[in-house]
């Protein structure tokens, strides 16, 4: 290892502190530990002192005498946090696995059972929920917090479910996606989407993907519990002039980069790879700092190597890759196309449907007039970044899926364009 000169550990979901053994690797000249879950003091060695900010970013818990990072108040405090960060997620995953196993068993039992389902709650027959926070959140609390899913608590609606804001007695606020009661003949599809979203969310953990807290399956209600993101959907923000003006150019660049990082993670850091299949402004949620979080994995597809990966046409109109109209074969390049549409929408301030039509019928040139006119005219430096990102977005919209870049390449290009000095 002494002869190692370059080391890239980015996007590996690493946690804990930076090992001291790096200080002994005197031959190591360049290191990239970006976008992990590392915390604690940054090792005081030349490779870290001289590292670019892009090589260290994406680790919220890091501190030290490095430009762009807070100083460390107490290394002991960081050490105590490490134990919590490592142990509690592991315990949570074990509990989640056990509960999921029970859930699928109950689901199979129900499927084979011809008895009529009870409509009253009583002792909540058939109820199974996976919950965190030491069991403080219970089924009854969610029902109470939403007033039995009353419309006044509804914050969004989709094709197969509605999302509610739920404030539980502890003061914590969650987003609860309740699946619509299926019509005759729709039961199997609803159950498939419900199970599919749970499976996807238990497989992933990324700062730009909505955090999953639990789920509940009950004869009367089936719902999934997420983190609550205060600013709501990107679509809602862009449709409102006042909120769109609050989403400045810097925030919009970070939204585009955040979605790209999430898709890069799904395509490259999950096994098997996950294709979201429904990337749109309605499925990108923002927190108070306008950090992007990809949501709604109801139609996500796992790309199993031993499967044909053919599927029915699905997704939001205006974002679906054109090849799906005649091939129905799901690949990562389907998400790449949707991302290209989304990136232009963020810059333009509205869905670029007219521009997409021009692209499909003739050659279309990007120009500065494509920028959202509701925002102040950007500086020349920001203009150059926006034009570079539009160029990346155009490459994602290539009619030939094989000619589109991978999300790994897109993420790398955006990092270079956005964080360049």
Automatic annotation (TrEMBL):
<dbReference type="InterPro" id="IPR001611">
    <property type="entry name" value="Leu-rich_rpt"/>
</dbReference>
<feature type="domain" description="Protein kinase">
    <location>
        <begin position="149"/>
        <end position="419"/>
    </location>
</feature>
<keyword id="KW-0418">Kinase</keyword>
<dbReference type="InterPro" id="IPR011009">
    <property type="entry name" value="Kinase-like_dom_sf"/>
</dbReference>
<protein>
    <recommendedName>
        <fullName>non-specific serine/threonine protein kinase</fullName>
        <ecNumber>2.7.11.1</ecNumber>
    </recommendedName>
</protein>
<dbReference type="GO" id="GO:0005524">
    <property type="term" value="F:ATP binding"/>
</dbReference>
<dbReference type="InterPro" id="IPR017441">
    <property type="entry name" value="Protein_kinase_ATP_BS"/>
</dbReference>
<keyword id="KW-0808">Transferase</keyword>
<dbReference type="Pfam" id="PF00069">
    <property type="entry name" value="Pkinase"/>
</dbReference>
<dbReference type="GO" id="GO:0004674">
    <property type="term" value="F:protein serine/threonine kinase activity"/>
</dbReference>
<keyword id="KW-0472">Membrane</keyword>
<dbReference type="Pfam" id="PF13855">
    <property type="entry name" value="LRR_8"/>
</dbReference>
<keyword id="KW-0677">Repeat</keyword>
<dbReference type="GO" id="GO:0016020">
    <property type="term" value="C:membrane"/>
</dbReference>
<keyword id="KW-0812">Transmembrane</keyword>
<keyword id="KW-0433">Leucine-rich repeat</keyword>
<keyword id="KW-0675">Receptor</keyword>
<feature type="transmembrane region" description="Helical">
    <location>
        <begin position="82"/>
        <end position="107"/>
    </location>
</feature>
<keyword id="KW-0067">ATP-binding</keyword>
<keyword id="KW-0732">Signal</keyword>
<keyword id="KW-0723">Serine/threonine-protein kinase</keyword>
<dbReference type="InterPro" id="IPR032675">
    <property type="entry name" value="LRR_dom_sf"/>
</dbReference>
<keyword id="KW-0325">Glycoprotein</keyword>
<keyword id="KW-1133">Transmembrane helix</keyword>
<dbReference type="InterPro" id="IPR000719">
    <property type="entry name" value="Prot_kinase_dom"/>
</dbReference>
<feature type="binding site">
    <location>
        <position position="178"/>
    </location>
    <ligand>
        <name>ATP</name>
    </ligand>
</feature>
<keyword id="KW-0597">Phosphoprotein</keyword>
<dbReference type="InterPro" id="IPR051420">
    <property type="entry name" value="Ser_Thr_Kinases_DiverseReg"/>
</dbReference>
<keyword id="KW-0547">Nucleotide-binding</keyword>
<dbReference type="InterPro" id="IPR008266">
    <property type="entry name" value="Tyr_kinase_AS"/>
</dbReference>
